[in-house]
Fold these 4 entries.
Entry 1:
Amino acid sequence: MSHWPESNWSAPWEFVILGFSGWPPELRALLFALLLPLYLATLTGNLLIVGLAVVDAALHTPMYFFLGALSAVEVAYTLVLTPPMLAGFLLPPGGQAVGLSTCAAQMGLFVALGGSECLLLAAMALDRYLAICHPLYYPQLMTMGLCWCLLACCGLGGSLLALGLTTAIFQLPFCHGGLVNHVFCDLPAVLVLACGDRDLQERALLAACLLLLVLPLALILLSYTRVLAVILGVGGATGRRKAFGTVASHLTVAVLHYGCATAMYARPLRSRSLEEDKLVSLIYINLTPLLYPAIYTLRNRDVQGALWRAVGPRTPGAAHQANVT
């Protein structure tokens, strides 16, 4: 509770995102030089996967439909967060001023994209479960119509959650100024500036974490446990190796995403350090989205084959083989 009189509680006209403005200019310039290539590589890798999933006929399957959708979400996520963070490294000390509506939009887009990605990873686990555990019924069950329906549900779920959380936080009065100690308008960093009783908003944030992190992760782990049991029990060595590689890549991405998100948001405000959160954000904004295309392209022969067909030399035999595939 604030010691300010309640009549003085009001929303600031703008927020100032502090970022790393207190760090020495040389260190900020070094971070900019290091993170800019990662940003460009992240966009290139994810856009490449989206493009291959769209244009290569061999990848027109439910698994690569979801993979392309996941990469598209990562592209949007990177475009929302990384450019303002990079610009903040080049600004004079004192932070980066943003309007109230801009801060709310940034928070809402971050939650919507992150929530959609959580649900999308669960949809990918469902797809692999049906493909490996029920292969005879898989073509009838996982149709493209169902894929689009699942994708729409993932986007709608993330958007509704973002609308609810962002509205709940920005309905609060702010009496602790507008200095956001983060690299963007993250939920905890803005919530700590609010006055009055924040228990409702904090409980809503923790409930959202339970809904989007704990439950989907539990379903993913159960699905892949069943998938691994089936892989080890049936099929030849080549089929087991291919299926295990696919499951391993999906599990790696899920652990990276849910691990970072749980470490960041499944904690009460009283037990978190905004300075530590700010440092961790450099990982999940810059490194984690870059690892996704690296994991899928390096471990997946289908994507490697599609990439070779797209950039490799075109011969009549190769063209005929691609058309047959």
Entry 2:
Amino acid sequence: MGHLQGMRSVFKCVLFVSITLCAIYLISPSVKLLIGFKPIEKCHLESAKMLNLDSSVDASLNLQSRPDVLTCTYWKAAIIWEGMFDPRLYDEMHKMKGSSVALTVFAVGRYLDAYLHTFLNSAEQHFMVGLPVTYYVFTDMPEKVPNIKLSPLRSMKVIKVEKNSRWQDVSMMRMKSISDVIESDIRHHCTHVFCFDVDQVFTGRFGSEALGDSVALLHAHYYHLPKYLYTYDRNPNSKAYMETGDFYYHAALFGGSWKNVKALTKACYQGIMEDKQNNVEALWHDESHLNKYMLLHKPSRVLSPEYCWDTSIGFRRYIQVTRLLWAPKYYDTLRTP
């Protein structure tokens, strides 16, 4: 019994230290500035032809065009940055292949009024322009979904969901909703799926270069942090438990082929429900389970932080463009019952 209590004390201490150090980073501009100058790893591949290619066009990626950033993973997946790719080649290839994209987004409670209109309007301007796109809007108030003028080849489907009393449950239960709609609808109409948080704004091209079999996003706030500061769930009782990992991925967006996104969301939901049965809740909810899944099932494509940037981080030389930005967060008002 004493040994068990000792282990629990050690776990609590490690978790407290990690979260405290990350909090210092998030609130301290001087620490952020120092982190911005931290040396980074370099891609070990001489040519993109050595990548595990998501498509033939990936062989045209210029891995050496960005010596300031890491452009590939050790499992030979590309990390996509501005300057590495020719957007015309990707657009032409995906049009020729007949690629089509489902975009899922949840706008529940006050989040609908605060963010959905801006999110959808900006997506119309920047997300997968030129490809067929279907928006799947999950909401508890279908009647309040804004009437957006959609471009040709684009459509919208509104799906009613129940409003959970806790925002954590909204976040976690979306995994089941996405899995269910992929099975019932998306797989019959779309080749790829991208899942987004609604409190974001598209600001630049978010195009077909982002499409792949399994797509993960590097979290903007963790990109330059040492791994010991990554806030993985380190509770051994959770299905999301991780001692360490490859990167820290952001659940604000993830994607891939419909088969792979269905497998991811199904596995995360199963992990969440097993935790619930054991009275456990992962540290960062569905994001913790997503990171565990991506550790066990490596993504075939990784998006750089320019695909979801937070301007509060400040200037970073390696961010040459921003494609999606965090919208202002109003947690105090939006997450209250």
Entry 3:
Amino acid sequence: MQRGQGQLSETFYSTSCPKVESIVRQVVAQKIAQTFVTIPATLRLFFHDCFVEGCDASVIIASPNGNAEKDAPDNLSLAGDGFDTVIKAKAAVEQSCPRVVSCADILTIAARDVVALAGGPSFKVELGRRDGLISMASRVAGNLPEPNFNLAQLNAIFAKNNLNQTDMIALSGAHTLGFAHCTRFANRLYSFSPSSPVDPKLNSTYAQQLMQACPQNVDPQIAINMDPVTPRTFDNSYFKNLVNKMGLFTSDEMLFTNKASQATVVDFANNPGNFNGAFIAAMRKLGRVGVKTGTAGQIRVDCTAFNS
């Protein structure tokens, strides 16, 4: 059991802030109406938060010295719209229930909401996390999966967070949404190996499309949809794409080409209900990682700063 995990509860705020989930949902919906990026940005922010120091909103802290968790190289590509969603939701919640609901819980609720609002499954979230007191850029390296990881490396980094291979594959399905910068997969198009510049595991038509979108030496700001089929819908297309050799990262495609994970990918590609069920289970488990409860941590007033 992770420390304090047993003290999370779906009804944690039922008397202290009974409307918290509807308040957050309203802010999230408004933010999505302004920009679609809200959806992948918020979901990814939750994942990055939980994998470093646990689900404690440590990733949202801003440092004047540029040395907070969010300033680490692996976190620089986290889109501002995810942070903004949590900050706006926190402000709305503070008006109803000041100093009651943690930023960590607001991020957890918002991550659940963006999945549902993108057409994915709805599910209940456990609440009662408190906000962390540590946020350091130096503590990020080695704690987040990289796009070139193999199955053993992915399984190891997820296992460290109490997540098994099925959870890892289900959470990878979040790549049905959002964008990736060309630099993160250019090696598969231009420099895969001396004998084959293009990764032979990449669908050749898809490789041509990627080369058009991401020419060599392209502006590093350029990003493309991770799911070229239904980029704005939370569905199981990611797994269908993998079967069709259209996984964008090596760490995506490998889930299909490695025999040890292939059966799960094929199952999720063929059975959206199985994927949704596994995704919900994995999100709930992810939300328990390294949580602070009881008197640990604090309830931040401003999500971007520790209480003074």
Entry 4:
Amino acid sequence: MVATKRKRRGDLAVQAKKPKRNEKDAKSLSKSPVKAEEVEEEEKDRIPGPVCKGKWKNKERILIFSSRGINFRTRHLMQDLRMLMPHSKADTKMDRKDKLFVINEVCEMKNCNKCIYFEAKKKQDLYMWLSNSPHGPSAKFLVQNIHTLAELKLTGNCLKGSRPLLSFDPAFDELSHYSLLKELLIQIFSTPRYHPKSQPFVDHVFTFTILDNRIWFRNFQIIEEDAALVEIGPRFVLNLIKIFQGSFGGPTLYENPHYQSPNMHRRIVRSITAAKYKEKQQVKDVQKLRKKEPKTILPHDPTEDVFVTPAEKKPIEIQWVKPEPKVDLKARKKRIYKRQRKMNQKVNSGNAK
């Protein structure tokens, strides 16, 4: 569009005069394509920055909270998970008398579509629920071998809020229930891209391995120099109990046949110790009975005296004279010491006078 200006006295529009070009401007225009080529070469060699502007599309939000009666170790584990997952939210502890279906309403109030719920029983057993709220599925685990970030003295470290890589054991793809758990773990533990609280870096990895019919969780730092792994923590073991079709309930999709409840485990341990005690008592009773039984007298065997050589009989000597008393050297030394002490006391008293 051509620039125009108005006359002061009239309404006609007149084109604005073009500015005159100087010699310096002509030289700069001639050199501009050379500079443009240099800038393009520099941009090719430049490494793009890690921060890239994008739209936050994955609106996954995780609610992490627990029931009343948890111990300090569980509380620290829950805080570590909240710190490692920037897309998580917290809530107050839930009363143990309330039913688990109430958690779906809490998730709806907090605008969360996934939930990690820690359920404590008998102040020593810890259960973890992983649920897709409100439609399901959900899985219940027994948590064992808990080690938190504050407890472990490990050298690994990572940026707070950075996005993790998820590494799964190949055994997750072999069985159907493990593939379902894999998808549930991916949706819960993966930090959404471009999340406002997340950092656009990938410097640690979550590993899920299957061993002894249990899922082992580890957190490792990725070192940039040689891509080596250094453990950060926390670490824990998940023993699968059941998988439900709904959220915190519903029809059972899978039940672990290898699962043994903590009460049964403690009962077996007590029975083993009781069996050891019973064995000791039985051995003592058998020994008492053997002592009370009469001894069996075996008949004399004439062949026993074949190799017996009779000893020479010594003459009997009768001592008519009383033997001399033995000299007690200790008593003699005491008497000599007392005598010398008395003599020294007399000498010292005479010199004093």
